[in-house]
Amino acid sequence: MIHIEGATKRFGANTILDGIDLRVAPGEVVSILGPSGSGKSTLIRCINGLERLDGGFISVDGHRVDDPKGLQLARRCSGTVFQLFNLYPHMTALQNVTLAPIEVLKTPRARAEQEGRELLASVGLAERADTYPAQLSGGQRQRVGICRALAMKPRYLLLDEVTSALDPEMTGEVLAILARLAAGGTTMLFVTHEIEFARQISQRIVFLDGGKLVADLSTARFFAADGGLAQPRIAQFLSKMTK
Amino acid sequence: MRYADFTAHDLLLLLQGLGVSLALFAATTAIGLAIGLVWAALRYYRVPLLAALAALLAELLKNSPVLVQLFLVFFGLPVLLETDLTPVQAALITLSGNTAAFVYVIAVSAIEAVGRDQLETARVFGLSRWQTLRRIVAPQAAAFALGPLAGLLVNQLQVTSLISVIGVVDLTKVGAILNLRTLKPFIVWTVIGLLYYLAARLIAGACARLETRLRAHREWKGL
Predict the structure, then answer these.
(1) At residue A85, what are phi and psi to the nearest 5 degrees?
(2) Which residues 23-62 on chain A approach chain B with CB closer than 8 angstroms?
(3) CA contacts within 13 A on the Cβ side of B124
(4) CA of A92: which chain B residue's CA is closest?
(5) Which CATH superfamily is domain A2-86+153-241 in?
(6) Where do the DSSP E strands lie in B19-82?
């Protein structure tokens, strides 16, 4: 369970997260929607400990991320996929995938490489395993990014606008993989602007605006005329995004 | 005027001088690289006090003339420590320290050139600071550093010529001796200059080859 309670984050005078409460249970797919600057990415960065909260707390499977020991354990439970891929440029696709299993989980190299090749094959990149990121397309890079996160066998997958840097065709490649993962029962916290896709794969939709959690509804309720759409801020956002 | 002529023995003398220059260069480069990298590591790990001390030392060493440092070590240090220093020892100390200072500066800026996203990603995946340094930062920083490092090394090779003034019989000192004997400065210094040039090209070439290898992953191969 990812447990977020009263999460508050400020940068100077700006309040980026304003008392967020959210729980994500194993097996759930939860999408986080909201306009730019609403705090979606910051929330992800607080869960994986790249930013410190100024108030409230976050725990992943009971490990509090504000405690160094807890953060270490929390990071073992979750895998992050980044908006700009953040692949290691000096390593091949396979090395990107196997680095953390070998260094952190102490998986024997041969086994890590075998699992890495299987993961890459599962996203259609069997032939590109020994290629450097610079020689891959954006969609291929992000697929490597997903494999890299999955190689750690995380219980929770944190996805931070993973298709925002991709053109529609490449976005399709990546979303197809995420849809398969969702159907396979992978727990996902999915920050996105792909509203239609979020609607298809998630059980719940969370809407952030100005650092506040405006709605946390089942997908059906969120898109219902008397549910999420009844809130003017959400209706306005959706109509703009789907235009 | 027999002594004014060049002899086959002079060639041997020149090669000996070149050997001394190159040996000193190699030794001071190895020591300087090691010390400079340790200083940079102190900074990477933010070791209190020692990191600041390394920065100060590098600052002092890179902003004063090597010749002054050489005199300070050769004439000053023995007085202070009440010991004797041979010219070679003094040259080793001075040039190693000087190389270390510039290696520190190059290493620090190369480490800072590695993207913040790379450090964050490594942290999120649970890599320790040491694992991050070894697997993520160092390989990328090395590729950034090699260009400036090649420039530094070529320069440091030429700086070794300063040690002739305290009596080390290096290539420049041999040149001075030959020049006094033969009174043919144009020939002598041309030959000496060419030898330094060839050695410098060798160093630059080796660095360029290494750089190509470290940048093998880049699509863009540079201008």
Answers:
(1) 70, -50
(2) 48-50
(3) 27
(4) B217
(5) P-loop containing nucleotide triphosphate hydrolases (3.40.50.300)
(6) none
Judging contacts by C-beta atoms under 8 Å, the chain B residues touching residue A135 are 219
> In the predicted model, is pLDDT for residue A76 greater than 70?
yes
Domains of chain B as residue ranges with CATH: 2-214 (1.10.3720.10)
ipTM of the complex as predicted:
0.91
Compute the nearest-CA separation of B127 from chain A (Å).
Answer: 6
**Using CB atoms, which residue from B123, B136, B218 is nearest to A88?**
B136
**Tokens, residue A97:** 């995938």
Give the residue among A102, A132, A127 at the shortest CA–CA distance from B143. Answer: A132
Q: What confidence tens digit (pLDDT) does each residue in A181-225 have? A: 988 888 999 999 889 889 988 999 999 999 999 999 999 999 988
Q: What pTM did the predictor assign? A: 0.86
> Is the confidence at residue B18, as pLDDT, over 70?
yes
Q: Which of B5, B29, B3, B45 is nearest to B199 (CA)?
A: B29
Q: In this predicted model, what pLDDT tens digit does every residue of A167-193 receive, in sequence order?
A: 888 898 889 999 999 888 889 999 998
